Prior knowledge:
Elements: H1 8-11, H2 18-22, H3 24-34, E1 37-40, E2 46-49, H4 52-60, E3 65-66, H5 92-100, H6 106-110, H7 113-125, E4 132-134, H8 135-140, H9 142-152, H10 159-175, H11 178-201, H12 207-213, E5 215-216, E6 219-220, H13 223-236, H14 239-254, H15 256-265, H16 269-278, E7 285-289, E8 293-295, E9 298-300, E10 305-308, H17 310-313, H18 348-365, E11 370-371, E12 376-377, E13 385-387, E14 389-391
Parallel strand pairs: 2-10
Antiparallel strand pairs: 1-2, 3-7, 4-14, 5-6, 7-10, 8-9, 11-14, 12-13
Bound molecules: protoporphyrin IX containing FE.
Amino acid sequence: MSASEPIGLTDDWDPMTPENYVDPVGVNGTLRRDCPVAHSSQFGGFWALFKRADIVAATKQTDTFVSSPAITVPPFSVADAPWIPLQSDPPQHRQYRRIINPFFFASRLEGFEPELRRLTNDFIDEFIEQGEADLVAELTLRLPATAISLLLGLPLESWKMLHDWTVAIIGAGNRGDFETVGRTYGEMFAFADQLMEARRQKPGEDVMTALVTGEVEGRPLTQAEIRGAFALLIIAGHETTSNAISNALYLFATDHSTAERLRTGGIDDTALEEIVRYCNPVQGMGRTTTRDVEVGGRCIPGGSLVALMFGSGSRDADEFAQPDEFVPERSPNPHLTFGSGQHRCLGEQLARMEIRIVLETVLERLHPIELAGDTKPALWPSIGYHGLPVRFAPGTRRSE
Ligand code: HEM
């Protein structure tokens, strides 16, 4: 099989255009229909798989579609600090996961729930009397960042610092401003190094303690591996969840009957899964091919960067009836919002918990909400909002 040249139509796809920012779901839908194995010249050239079956098949071929070289398109991580466990392949991947997995067991996460509910109510208290707020700045970014502070055993106020790092790295990476990316990583890693030292001196019951005491291949993790794991937990766990929640809040603000239905009927597990599918916040994640490989009749050359378009796969009409409709009773619901295969999201249960807590609390205390100004879209490869101004009937605080 010889490597085919990318065809003209798909070379035109540029995920950084305004059109893609305004309607990424629509653009991805068109590509899924017309060019399900696409090529883009952006970021030095990459391929993208839009069909659910192709994406799932790629995640199973772990020797052909590897994660160690890059896990995003374009790569955001830095070479000397791999984003562990995402930026790793078998057999190391399983060993890295074994160190972190216990922190994401449901039994452990349940312990966070009362605190996360209390914090959500506290955040809402800060603006409920005003009758309007930017729900992203005031709520959806704060809760996930605070949850990560809890996981890392940091003071809750650390959420702002974690958030600022994430925004700087993602924003500057999109602009190709790698100087800012490098500087921000420098700050983040200096903090990570101090935290490593603190946990070595005085172990706690947090993820950083597990990382500094854990082993892979019979050796302790290196400083670079721990730095990368720290960066991944902060970035992967926070803007994603915020975007999923802001997508759902946009739905509530623009479709009051759906919001009312969820308010009166409650968000059961089936409805939550449909929220997770419909409000998917990640367009795609990256792999690199280790050899020429044929997908959907096209040949992707070895050494290519490939985006697995998980969000598109979750709206594939071959697998989902009415894929672009919000159907709260949809079952089964084999969406790819949390990925597929060995790298499937480690934080999915935490994310579900946070999404449910925020949406239930908003439906209880702010409903109905309506848009009160221009929204600000999230940046590729995310789908969501960096600004979501809404208005609602002013309410009363619950805490002093
Ligand atoms: C709605 C929120 C979230 C979404 C949509 C999401 C999505 C994803 C996806 C698609 C992957 C697979 C990436 C790939 O295959 O290349 C992934 C992996 C991962 N996610 Fe999430 N994520 C979310 C929340 C979280 C949270 C809250 C955390 C932790 C605090 C987290 C930590 C991770 C980690 C560590 C991995 C790598 C797993 C591995 O490589 O084995 N995520 N996530």
